[in-house]
Amino acid sequence: AIEYGYSIAATWDSDTPVTPEGPLVLPGNYQLVLHVGGKSYRAPLVIALDPREQVSQDELVTALTYSRKIAAILQRVWQGYGEVEAVRDQLDTLDRKLNQSAAHQALLESVDSLRIKTTPLVDGTGEASLNLHAISDALAAIATDVEGADHAPTDGQQQALAQYQTNVDKALAQWSAIRTTELTKLNQQLHDAGIDAITVANPDRVASKETGESEGTP
Fold it and tell me: Is 90 exceeded by the pLDDT of residue 170?
């Protein structure tokens, strides 16, 4: 997720985990394996369903499948958001550099145009919003709800996920189009002016910005 949070029950001294924590494993027999110092250590682990719950294995499988789907979409959103933010940071730096010279008016206009094109991907609200951060927050909230209950996702949760997946597809398609058009055009202008190009980070180099503490942070 782009940003994690704490539940309302979080306490400072209890190693409260951040949410979403991730998909819940199904009940069953497992092994824990620790690799350290060139050796491997194994121990059995039995995951049992809360005896107070009356839920079928099929429901739990459905919940796990749903959680994994959310996790996969969150990963795509995180990647896209990190790329967009990294490019926008470079645009800000370039803007300050170009403003020191009146000879780069055309470049400044291209920088502003690219920034405007990417703004809907990092700003905006509403069901049809393409704001990747807002989408990540919404998906993280749904994931947390599913992780906190031993039952299959509701119809409402299924519909919400489908809607957000559609928005993610649109947002990332828009970002892909921006990269291949406006960003390519700007980089050509920068090349002609002898200025370093704007780069898009490789997947293993993406890092979303850290956010400040929220009201729910203990």
Answer: yes
Q: Which tens digit of pLDDT belongs to each residue from 111-135? A: 999 999 999 999 988 888 999 999 9
pLDDT for 58 beyond 90: yes
Q: Residue 90: which residues within 8 A CB-CB, separation 6 or more?
A: 198, 199
Quick count: other Cβ atoms within 10 Å of Cβ 81? Answer: 24
Reference 28, options 70, 52, 64; nearest CA is 64
Q: Which residue has the higher pLDDT, 112 or 11?
A: 112
- For residue 193, what are the contacts with CB-CB under 8 A and spacing of at least 6? 104, 107
Handedness of CA 76, 77, 78, 79 (dihedral sign): positive
Query: d(Cα 124, Cα 130) in Å, to the nearest integer?
Result: 7
Residue 38 in 3-state DSSP?
coil
pTM of the model: 0.83
| Alpha helices per DSSP H over 148-207 | 155-178, 184-192
